[in-house]
Specification:
Layout (H helix, E strand, L loop, with lengths): L2 H6 L9 E2 L10 H17 L1 H7 L1 H15 L6 E4 L2 H10 L8 E4 L5 H14 L2 E4 L10 H11 L3 E5 L11 H11 L2 E5 L11 H4 L3 E5 L11 E5 L1 H5 L12 E5 L2 E4 L13 H17 L1 H21 L3 E2 L10 E4 L6 H9 L2 E2 L1 E4 L4 H7 L3 E5 L7 H14 L2
Parallel strand pairs: 1-13, 3-4, 3-5, 5-6, 6-7
Antiparallel strand pairs: 2-8, 7-8, 9-10, 11-12, 12-15, 14-15
Helix pairs in contact: 2-3, 2-11, 4-11, 7-8, 12-15, 13-15
The chain binds pyridoxal-5'-phosphate (PLP).
Protein name: Aminotransferase class V
Pfam families: Aminotran_5
Keywords: Aminotransferase, Pyridoxal phosphate, Transferase
Length: 392
Amino acid sequence: MDINTIRQETRGLKDGKIFLNNAGSSLMPDLVTDAMVDYLKLEEFSGGYHVADVNADILEEFYDETAKLVNAGPSNMAFATSATEAYSKALSSIIFKEGDVIITTADDYISNQITFISLQKKIGVKIIRMKNLPDHELDLEDLQRLIREHHPKLIAVTHIPTNSGLIQNVEAVGKMCREHDILYLVDACQSVGQMVVDVEKIGCDFLTATGRKFLRGPRGTGFLFVSDRVLEQDYAPLLLDMRGADCTGYNDYELFRTAKRFEHWEFSYASMLGLKHAVRYANNIGMDMVEKYNRELSRKLRENLKNYGFNVWDWGNRLSSIVTFSGPDGDLENIRKVLKENNVYFSVTYKNSALIDFTKKDINGIVRLSPHYFNTIEEIEKVSEILKASLK
Ligand SMILES: Cc1ncc(COP(=O)(O)O)c(C=O)c1O
């Protein structure tokens, strides 16, 4: 992995900023924006339909690249306009009845929790959150018990929560789902692009991702993986359109066989092309290399922050490239001010985005720094020094 070249290929890094908000919305490699702009210019001259026809093969490569990224087949992949859209469509394909049980975790993404609560209010599904062990790992014995007692219709786990560095043991949960033949939905929004994500190893039926974060794609993009198991059983979004099925009679349709049935007919092809290039860029570097390097960056950052007296809020045995912390006295605002003044990109999350987790931790919010493979150890040291100096 040649970090100098990677940095040279990213115009957004050339003004000297230290960009540490990859869990928010990262910087696209130049070739991503260039491909999108070129494609839009073609649309400007010939209209979108003509350009899509001429570029059909190039657009189709989106499915190959995303499949390669997560170790699936191209027919298992669908484009989405966001992780949330992918998640909603996956959920909508499951016909819930009153009393059906969804098992999730206390650390699942807040919008997913809101969706489950909506299903609870509208349909009467029951939400159960599995317990954590004292070291914050998922309590898998408790999960076994919950499965035996409640026969859940769905288990849903967020691989890496938005508000902490935790990496959930999605593989162990997947093993149980397969043993008990339970539908398994994994939100990999924060893990794709920053670490190896392998749907075979995870054993999931659905996996959702966004483009703009660690994948370094454009906004308004994402993807959904759908397993063969689920496709063969004719799972499809509740509200289908002609991208998903062929209308075969006045009152009938036939589902298309691939995961494209989870797409809607209209979306931005320039954006899909941009995401294809971003995913190809990641595939070419190699996710194992990215994961290893990111682990080093985040380990160093956490170590420095702890040494300087900051509260680091990442609980769990395996930690990701999301580093969350506050000042020694819980301060967020001074840190925010200092990072801004020094041209460091970061984000701040408050309790309403992570209600259960932050209640347990007894905090109102965190500052989040999320380094990625284009960052250098020198940048990590510099930011650490800036933060250390802010304590004086
Ligand atoms: C863990 C997780 N899941 C899902 C999402 C939603 O992604 P999107 O905004 O692309 O729908 C986010 C966004 O921050 C996230 O962090």
